[in-house]
Amino acid sequence: MPRKIATRLHARATWLLLGCCLAWGVIAADAAAPAAVGAVEVVVAGKPGLTLGREALSGLPRTTITAAAHEEAASQWQGVALDEILRRAGAPLDKPLRGRNLASYVRVTASDHYQVVFGLAELDPTLGHARVILADQRDGKPLGDDGPFRLVVEGDQRPARWVRNVTRIEVIDGSTNAP
């Protein structure tokens, strides 16, 4: 009798372990999957999400930055200004930043989970006015291995914030004060 109970317990433990492994695989796959292939998800707290693909970006005002990455020759990077994208997603860039919005930051994530952060004030036209674009073309051609979307930051001494394969852009309230 004790051997029969031990066999049943072993079988149940095996099924439980197998179920946990399968569930973990589903959760991990879901967390790593972007919203859509070839699209960027833009999230601003309290606003509806915005998903931008190539077609949607082509309909927004375009800008060009001439810049070089590492030891390469300078290229013409074409895309949409990051502050324009954030404004369309509902970020408070339609008037000068004040109060708790000055503590907000923008996190940009790549498909390989590489992330960079900008203070929202860096992108505000009345404060830092950093020229940052979400590029979809280099020298008039779609991006190859760097794309479909790449962040390009004019004036950076090295391209550490030039995120390749951008999949997500978030505006996050960094204030520690209650609203």
Gyration radius from CA atoms, angstroms: 22 Å
Topology as a string of helices (H) and strands (E): HEEHEEHEEHEEEE
Report the CATH superfamily of the largest domain: Oxidoreductase, molybdopterin-binding domain
- Enter the CATH topology name of the largest domain: Sulfite Oxidase, Chain A, domain 2
Please report the total strand number as a whole number. 10
In the predicted model, the low-confidence regions spanning at least 5 consecutive residues are 13-35
Basic shape: globular
Discrete helix count = 4
Helical residue percent band: 25-40%
Query: How many domains, as an integer?
Result: 2
Q: What order do the strands of the largest sheet run in, or round the barrel if closed?
A: 2-1-10-5-6
C-alpha termini separation: 64 Å
CATH domain class of the largest domain? Alpha Beta
Largest sheet: 5 strands, mixed
Which CATH architecture of the largest domain is right?
Alpha-Beta Complex
Topology:
Layout: H1 2-32, E1 39-44, E2 50-53, H2 54-58, E3 63-67, E4 75-81, H3 82-89, E5 105-110, E6 115-119, H4 120-123, E7 132-138, E8 141-142, E9 150-153, E10 166-172
Parallel strand pairs: 1-10
Antiparallel strand pairs: 1-2, 3-4, 4-7, 5-6, 5-10, 7-8, 7-9
Write a short abstract of this structure.
With 179 residues, the protein is α+β, with helices and mostly antiparallel strands.
Keywords:
five-stranded antiparallel β-sheet, alpha+beta, 10 strands, globular, 179 residues, five-stranded mixed β-sheet, 4 helices, Sulfite Oxidase, Chain A, domain 2
